[in-house]
Here is the input.
Amino acid sequence: MYWPTGSARRLSVESQGFADIHTEAVHMSCARDGLLWLVLTRSALLIWRARPAELVTAMVRTARSIHEYGANLCALWRHDSGALVVRTERDTLLFYDLVQPTNMTAVHALSDSTAPDLVPSAQALLSTFQPATGDAYHTIGGDLFGGRIALQLVFRDALQVDPGISAIASIDPEILVATRSPAAVQLIPWPSASDERPSAPSAPPILLASLPWLTPSPLVHAEHSYATDLSAWLTEDGCAYIVGQSDAWIGACAYSAAENGAMPVTTAVNARFSLLAVGLEQGDIIMFEFHTSTQSPEKTHTLSLTPHDTGRVTSLAWTADGHALAVGYERGWAVWSMFGHLMTHSFRSDWQSMTRVYRDTFQFGTQSVFWALGGTELFVLPRVPPADAPVKDDDKTLVYILPFLKAASTAQLMPAETDGCFLVGDTGAYIYRGNEQSDAGLLMPDNDIWRHVPFPPEYLTWQWPIRYAAQSSDGRFLAIAGRRGLAHYSTVSGHWKMYEVASQALSFCVRGGMVWFQHVLIAACDCMGEIQIRLYSRDQALDNAHLLDLAVLDAPVVTLQLLDTSLLLYLANNTLIHYNITTTREHVRLILCGSISFEGIIGEPSRVRAFSWLLPEQAEALPTDDLTMATLVFLIDGMLVLLRPAKASDDDQLSYDLQVLHEHIESYWTPIYAYEALQQSLWSFDGQRVLVWLNLLQHSDAPDYVFSVDDTYPLCILTDRGIILGADSQAVVRRTLDTTAYRLRLSTSLFLDRILRALLQRRRVSEAIHSAAPYVPLEYFAHVLEVLVHDILEKEADESTSASLEDNAPLLPTALAFLDHFDVALQVIVRAARKTEVSRWAYLFDAAGRPSDLMQRCLDRGDYASAGAYLLVVHEMEDRPTSIQATATALARFEENEEWEILRHALSFLHGVDQNGETLRACASIAAKLVRGKSLLSMENDLEGAQDVPLSRTPFHPKHPSRKYSLNESPRRPSSLARKNSLSSMPLSPAQNTPVLRASSAHVLHRAARSASITLSPSMPRMQANGRLVIPVSPSPGPLTPKPS
Here is the structure.
């Protein structure tokens, strides 16, 4: 989705001679085309270029003008960015034209030939598009830094509105003016800049009392959406309306403060997903879904930052693609996804305490926000901080620009590419390299697995913003497309390829998306009105003469998908076309297989965001039959729709059974390249939860599993790792910096345990075994099963006496039966037991079996680590004779198999079981008898050694003189292997007495006990002052001999 990255840039106009103007800023607004934006102060109007961010022109009103008309309040752009209007405090509209000299040659060409030509300065251009090593600027004409063309603000007219102005909105080609007394609305035409084209007469005002669907209260806010041709109105009595106009104004009420209690203060219309955001006085944002101005909008969800003190909502701004909403609050800001996932926010209590001087004033309150073209930058006009605010801004910053990263799926969603993840920024892309990591490395926190690929400055200079980006399935190739042309990149060579002939690049634009098929780039293009499907080879230069194939279509492409060798195109005329990609040694060709019209099924083709198909498993027909056999999934706005094919009885026409799976989906995945058990599944995200249908072809009534992801946004599904990869934004403040640095933090969530649980709940054990089998080689597979058993145990053990469990068959026995099919079953059971409370053990081992029997099975399998873990459970659950016998058996097996580390921990555990050592003596005595030959656990031998062999000091004479170590050095301790070698090299002769060997074994056991955190103290009866471990028993000492090897 959208995440902030890096630090915010600061824009100031103090160097241009506007001192202290930042304290007077009251409004900020962006033009409809996104190329220009303005900042309005109480006395000045500043026009800026969006990229590079640079002041273009400014106008400061005189004291006489302010006295006569009043100070500035807000401003509106005309739809073509050629004029604007300023509303003042004294109910006056000031009209200005934005003009440029016509006798100068244009250098900076825009996509719209009628738009003004804006040439950035050399300084601004170089600061924004910095060439990398080996890159250079090449422009048409060769003179990049030629003369600049400045814009001029020309005062056109002033209109006094006697009834008083309560709200204004720009409605092409007029201005909506809402008056206060009487409460009315009136359309006023924009003043004409030419005497030959006089302005149209104003329409008569319409009293709000004459509109039956509207309360007769004055408007306080109005906003118009050009894409939907609908407006949002707020009235003084706290009502919000969605309004349209044909012959007359007609609307429907969406919100009423009389019913809900909070007053609405601002709105924002999302044309892409038909959402209306209403910001309230207390800080909440309520979302409504609308269709027409005659139907009442339906409330979908509420965005709330409780318990943070946000203050009232000051500004709302949707991204151009409608996927994210920026919210300006009185005391901060936040960014939400369209269906309610919180991406980032600024509400922290330690901003000023984390650094000595903090200058990001926008973190403490905003007045206006808007998104730049492409959605990779957020412009923020901060609220003027009070005098006692804990911030300091010596730069007198006027506006902050916060860079953002966005998922490439916001422009083109590819459901089949479940593990493909890369992000697009303003000047580069970040490619996910998780597939190159090991299992353990992938789960490590703060693992940097991104590869940054900067975009070529030459392409960005002329074709910004980037509209489409596509990555190959193996991650080797990347393609981008801006306003015109395209470019592609190889991660192997590290080089970009662009059109060498500028006229060819400028003759087409990518419209509908791009996709990689091996080394071939497939792009849907609009070439001067002709819709084409072009095939480019990465191995050849970008030139129209080197196209591998070209197909011409009769309608624009809405979106495209690549499924194996099938290229699916959904067109604006409601037709789905299927091409099969055939490859030979010399050629790559598109072969038309068929098409289907969805007229009458899909109402608005332009609202289709993505689609995919699921083929039956038994399908081995020709590619031409795939389209008629496939089950289709469409994502229309936020509605996830399933279409099942059904043959008509009377003819060969194909019909579909339509089913709506969910109405508010942000993204979805169909892992057709996953393991067999998941190939027919469907995964989706609704802003709060992940919904999973395990087999969409068999049943699709309700999702098989639903789980929430609170703090992270899912990016992709690593089906071969059993992981959902998510991301969230982290704000970093350091003592040495005066600003906030944002970074993207990845998180991993296991999904395999949840899928297995869903199958076990339906008693589909065989399917669960089949689903889990491919994941057995994973390093963390045992952990997955442990999480599964642990979650089931904690839920059912607490409900074992309640009616809810009595009515439903317990799931734990089924889960344990499922575990028996895997070698790690015994290990999983004991790990799950030791991670839960002892009170739940009885419920677990009633189903799993006696702990002593499970420990014996571990010993028989040679799994001594798991057997050692069972010791605690055995001593807690079994009776004393059984516990002592089972423990002694385990100790004997540990010694026989030289598992000294496990034996050390076992002795340490037995030492702490009771105060007098009875359990340790009993277990060691029995274990010594079970060991074949002489045992080191023989307590009599250790007593004899302790009585006969005192410790002696051995003189040591170093071969080399001692030296001092630096701060980063230290004397190295011999490794364990070196110590073993030195011990084994000691000559042993029959003349040597056995107490030497006894002393050596005592020292070994003493070091083992010390490593096991056994504290040496005089109060411990089993530890002698000479440092040897002694086990007191009844006195019957005997000789100790080495254990035969």
